């Protein structure tokens, strides 16, 4: 017997019994995007490696340790996308979508990072992302956060998550702060772990994002980035906060929130939960006003966010806020040759009249008991039974598989009946 080939570690199959939960969450995300006036964009899962190096930053965990990178047959270095923003910007630039015009875009699909697999963190994971180009005021920042808050509310998660908010200022303000932070870290090198010592000179703001409790304690006395903000940055952040308060969106200020990618400036935010242990971030984003120019375009303000679908669904499952839905609502069973022909015709009529329902025909014949067992196993709510007697009288036998009650309805009234009960 041939050896079975298994899935790659950290890359999981989405099985039929789970796909309905994903579809429910994706439907909420897509309908919310439509209600906020966003359009879908699709772009490749493979890009030139240089795109991510320039966009995300050479000295980040993603680029240094986590990307799936390979040379193709032409010798070009390619990488599976570790996130969506860089590819979205590249697609917009290549297709002249954002030069001098506003765009509000959404996308969804798999991303890839070679991390240590654990619950809520995988090597292939799925994101739903949104990006807005061409708007620089705090009003669009508030609108983006309101989008995420609306999604969380629709999923019943508002009381289970907290919005954390910070401003990273401008690149000039961060440069001035960087010198002060490095000077502070140099005085406490004995407390820093290997990662933080390495980042101290290459990317010191990432030290603020450490999970090491000893370092966190020391950082309480570190210089504050907000002390280096100019009036424009202060006004932008104050404008955002006042708009969130006007919307009734509660938030916490977190001066250590820097996000894991280098392209962010000004507003950054995360929705976090304590229900998932260390994997607490379910949605995050921020402003990246310099990225379009950095990738070869004209200076363009931009902001976006991404939702991790695996983690969002894990949270919903943990809190028992989502249920698996059967794919079948109505199973049609036929007893005899002519009833089988009528079964196919009835199924087609019901599918056209009831496009939101799953209507399955029992195929392969068999005795009544076998067909009803199939209907029960399918998860259908109703079984429709067609036999010679039903055809002679132009009726259908309908059994409610939850209550066990059975009744007879007119064949011509089948669509109207099921519309009334679903």
TrEMBL record:
Q: Name one GO molecular function term.
A: ATP binding
Q: Which reaction(s) are listed as its catalytic activity?
A: tRNA(His) + L-histidine + ATP = L-histidyl-tRNA(His) + AMP + diphosphate + H(+)
The residues covered by the Aminoacyl-transfer RNA synthetases class-II family profile domain are: 1-326
Q: What is its EC number?
A: 6.1.1.21
Question: What are the entry keywords?
Answer: Aminoacyl-tRNA synthetase, ATP-binding, Cytoplasm, Ligase, Nucleotide-binding, Protein biosynthesis
GO BP, one annotated term: histidyl-tRNA aminoacylation
For the ligand (L-histidine), the binding residues are 83-85, 113, 127, 131, 259, 263-264
Where in or outside the cell it occurs: the entry states: Cytoplasm
Return the InterPro entries for the record.
aa-tRNA-synth_II (IPR006195), aa-tRNA-synth_II/BPL/LPL (IPR045864), Anticodon-bd (IPR004154), Anticodon-bd_dom_sf (IPR036621), His-tRNA-ligase (IPR015807), HisRS-like_core (IPR041715), HisRS/HisZ (IPR004516), HisRS_anticodon (IPR033656)
Q: Say if the entry is tagged with keyword ATP-binding.
A: yes
Task: Name the predominant localization.
Answer: cytoplasm
The record's comment on protein family reads:
Belongs to the class-II aminoacyl-tRNA synthetase family.
Q: Which proteins does it associate with, and in what oligomeric form?
A: Homodimer.
Protein name as annotated: Histidine--tRNA ligase
Species the sequence originates in: Ruminobacter amylophilus
């Amino acid at each position: 017997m041939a050896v079975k080939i298994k899935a790659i570690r950290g890359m999981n199959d989405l099985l039929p019994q789970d796909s309905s939960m994903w579809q429910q969450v994706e439907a909420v995300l897509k309908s919310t995007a439509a209600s906020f006036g966003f359009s879908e964009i699709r772009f490749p899962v493979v890009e030139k490696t240089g795109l991510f190096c320039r966009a995300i930053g050479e000295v980040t965990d993603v680029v240094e340790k986590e990307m799936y990178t390979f040379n193709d047959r032409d010798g070009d270095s390619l990488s599976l996308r570790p996130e969506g923003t860089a590819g979205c910007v590249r697609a917009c630039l290549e297709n002249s979508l954002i030069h001098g015009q506003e765009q509000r875009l959404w996308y969804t699909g798999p991303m890839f990072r070679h991390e240590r697999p654990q619950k809520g963190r995988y090597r292939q994971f799925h994101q739903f992302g949104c990006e807005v180009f061409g708007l620089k005021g705090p009003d669009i920042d508030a609108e983006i956060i309101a989008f995420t808050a609306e999604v969380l509310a629709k999923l019943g998660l508002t009381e289970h998550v907290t919005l954390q908010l910070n401003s990273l200022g401008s690149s000039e303000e961060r440069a001035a702060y960087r010198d002060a932070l490095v000077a502070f870290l140099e005085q406490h090198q004995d407390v820093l772990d290997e990662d933080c010592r390495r980042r101290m000179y290459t990317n010191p703001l990432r030290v603020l994002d450490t999970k090491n409790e000893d370092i966190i304690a020391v950082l309480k006395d570190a210089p504050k980035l907000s002390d280096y903000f100019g009036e424009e940055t202060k006004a932008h952040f104050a404008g955002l906060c006042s708009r969130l308060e006007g919307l009734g969106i509660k938030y916490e200020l977190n001066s250590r929130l820097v996000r894991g990618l280098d392209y962010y400036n000004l507003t950054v935010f995360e929705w976090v939960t304590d229900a998932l242990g260390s994997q607490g971030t379910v949605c995050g984003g921020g402003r990246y006003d310099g990225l379009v120019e950095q990738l070869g375009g004209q200076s363009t303000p931009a902001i976006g966010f991404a939702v991790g679908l695996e983690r969002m669904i894990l949270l919903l499952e943990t809190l028992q806020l989502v249920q698996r839905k059967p794919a079948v609502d109505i199973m049609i069973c036929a007893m005899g040759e002519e009833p089988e022909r009528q079964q196919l015709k009835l199924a087609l009529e019901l599918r056209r009249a009831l496009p939101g329902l799953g209507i399955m025909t029992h195929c392969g014949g068999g005795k009544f008991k076998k067909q009803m067992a199939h209907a029960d196993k399918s998860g259908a709510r109703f079984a429709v039974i067609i036999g010679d007697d039903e055809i002679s009288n132009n009726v259908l036998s309908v059994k409610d598989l939850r209550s066990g009650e059975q009744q007879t309805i007119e064949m011509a009234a089948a669509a109207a009946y099921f519309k009334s009960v679903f």
